[in-house]
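Example complex used in Figure S2.
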Amino acid sequence: MNKNSFSSDIYPILFLTIVVCIAVVGLVLTNSVTEERIEEARTEALKEILIAQFPDMDTFEYDEDIEVYTIYDQDQEIIGYAFETEADGYGGEIELLVALEGTDMREGNIIVKGISVLFHGETPGLGARIEEDAFLNQFEGTNVEDIRLTDDGGDIDAISGATVSTEAVVNTVHESALEKAALIRENMEVSA
Amino acid sequence: MNKFVDYFRNGIMESNPVLVLLLGLCPALAVSTSIDNGLGMTAAVLFVLLFANIIISLIRDFIPARVRIPVFIVIIATLVTIVDLSMQAFLPDLSKSLGIYIPLIVVNCIILGRAEAFASKHKLTESIADALGMVVGFGIALLLISMFRQLFGTGKLSIFGLQFLRVPGLAENPMAIFILPMGAFLVLGVLLAAFRYMGVVSGE
Amino acid sequence: MNNLFSIFIGMALINNFILTRFLGLCPFFGVSKKLSSAVSMGVAVILVMAGASAITWVLFFKVLVPFGVDYMSTVIFILVIASLVQIVEISIRRTNITLYNALGIYLPLITTNCAVLGVTFINARSDFTFVETMASAFGAGVGFTLVLAIMSGIRERLELADIPESFEGVPVAFLVAMMLGMAFLAFGGMV
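Predicted assembly (587 residues):
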């Protein structure tokens, strides 16, 4: 009887343990097959986003300290910089990638090459229109000083019905571009 | 063989998981913004449900009743993780647009429900038939919902980037509410009522 | 502080679990027929969400990520939630039988409630700190309870309404959910 109750207690636990062990082995195997591929897919996706802004890009480098990508062309010349930033939109965070031209980053010489929207939760038909080219193209080749809404004396027209979203994007791009440009310049001075 | 067909049919018609049993609503509503997403989710559920039913049906005589549910959960969660990792590796775009709804297949009531109510009591072939029927039923529901949402919400219909219908007028000024979460409630509510009206499914 | 408040509001109102993320729909349509049971269910969900978020945060950021096995998170999280629900159920049954009678039948349902697992995934993916995780968990729970309670109130009234036969019951509940969602859309832009 003693033995019986022992086995009726032990068996379920033993069974569950075996199932868990098999599951863990299965997961480790799957991970070893997919891990490298996932990393590759992520790099590829990133490369695609960067190439959309820098068609001449050959390679890029990521500086973890200042969180900036440096973009090189085929001759290994710097053609620009890019960084990711977040704006507080109407429906949560808007993730943006901002591309800067490869200038000396002195004041008045900071030029936005373009921006891409990586992720947003804005309302379709209203705030989501920040994804449209008509809005995004306004940023291309614009001096950071002019990246303000036309109402504030800048060059960017707001989208009607999407004031919160456009203001968030424009102000974030303006502020973060100035901030990152200063960091990039500091780096340049150190290495020079 | 006859039984096989019966169990398969049952999942599509009398106990369609989404339209009749109202199970698996989270994924059905959340990812039905486009047909692509709907098909991707159906494929993921197919893999998990099929293998969960197969494995559980094979080991059903050995599973101690007391740890039944934890065993099911471990098996399902493992299968879901395999799907999740494979999708991230080989279909990164789809994986990104389905987001947390892929790992959430773990708590999709259809899968645990079928494991408990069907696979743990039936033979292998019957469990496979049940899984296939359920997934086809789930897929049909998802396809219907996502088709209406995509059509009204964008004015276009396309599968995997291949556009085959564009409604003039609607495409320029789409009814964005259908893409919004509310649109999912609207479409499913009206679909259910329409099916009841036509007598396809019975009311409460 | 401001940040915690915006996480809370974001989870509870702007990205409400039921209305915009479709998490926790099964209890939403099952339990939302009576106000009292909706509130009991909501309280149980808040408790489990808070507990599960705290435990999974520690496990994810202190164990899984440092050891590079974060791909195990799905399996671990669901096991944590399942055991937590068991423990809560047993301890409530032993200590407070009235509370058990009120909450008991809802507890097993919570294991397969996608809202609980959903909040743990969202926390892990958002790289929240521990305090932010708790704000997010409470926000999600409160938002869930709020919508469940509103819905049950509306459904109690709907019982008396003259609804076309094919829309009775669940279909009309979906339409009400749609309208609630539109109302909640106005919370956007609050933070």
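Residues 35-64 of chain C form the longest helix (30 residues). Chain C touches chain B at residues 19-26, 29, 71-75, 78-79, 82, 111-114, 117-118, 121-122, 125, 164-175, 177-179, 181-182, 185 (CB under 8 Å).
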